[in-house]
Amino acid sequence: MKIGYCVEGSTDRALLNGLKIRWCPDAELVEGRFRGELRPREYSKACLELQTKGADVIILLRDANDENWRAVAKKDLQACGSSYEHKMVVGVCHRNVECWLVADAQYAGIRTRRPEADFRVVNPKRVFDEAMQITARDRKEGKISEYVQQAPLACWLTNKSFEDFYEKLRLQSKRIGCQLENLRAS
């Protein structure tokens, strides 16, 4: 099985890799274009490229920044085109992906040996990057992927945009045969 994706950057890619290893380890990730290289009018073409590469599922993951994440997700899904809707998972982080990564501030603090209060901020990008020692030269994708693999993801469901992404992944998992853990039972 192949999971195609378009993301904003390396942290997003690492998050997807960690989830893939956790939930569908035999799947192959197929990289599309980074979202910074795409305008919404090009999403349909990016989906076609991923479908041509054999993607069974296509994930578009991006940050909402200061926009309403639900409205962004709806607009992005429409921009992908109805012919891909059956295999699409559009995930929109309510601010940025770091908000998902520190949704459980206690876990973030334990893993990075920093006070959990450091992660209870509106925009945790800077503090997460510092705590993980992410630099322009070393994006720490392996370390982030492993962080996600071991994370208590049920706690991340308190973040409504992650909960929405998880539910969409869960629905797709039924279609393609991956078994996502029931986070609500944790």
Question: What is shown here, in short?
Answer:
This protein is α/β, with parallel strands linked by helices and 186 residues long.
Describe the structure.
The model has no long low-confidence stretch (mean pLDDT 95). The protein has helices spanning 10-23, 43-52, 69-80, 97-101, 105-112, 125-132, 141-150, 153-156, 160-176; strands spanning 2-6, 28-31, 57-63, 88-93. The protein is α/β, with parallel strands linked by helices and 186 residues long. It is built from nine helices and four strands; from the N terminus they run βαβαβαβαααααα. A four-stranded parallel sheet has the order 2-1-3-4, sandwiched between helices. 47% of the residues lie in helices and 12% in strands. It has a single domain (2-96, 141-147, 156-185), classed as 3-Layer(aba) Sandwich (Rossmann fold), CATH 3.40.50. The radius of gyration is 16 Å and the shape is globular.
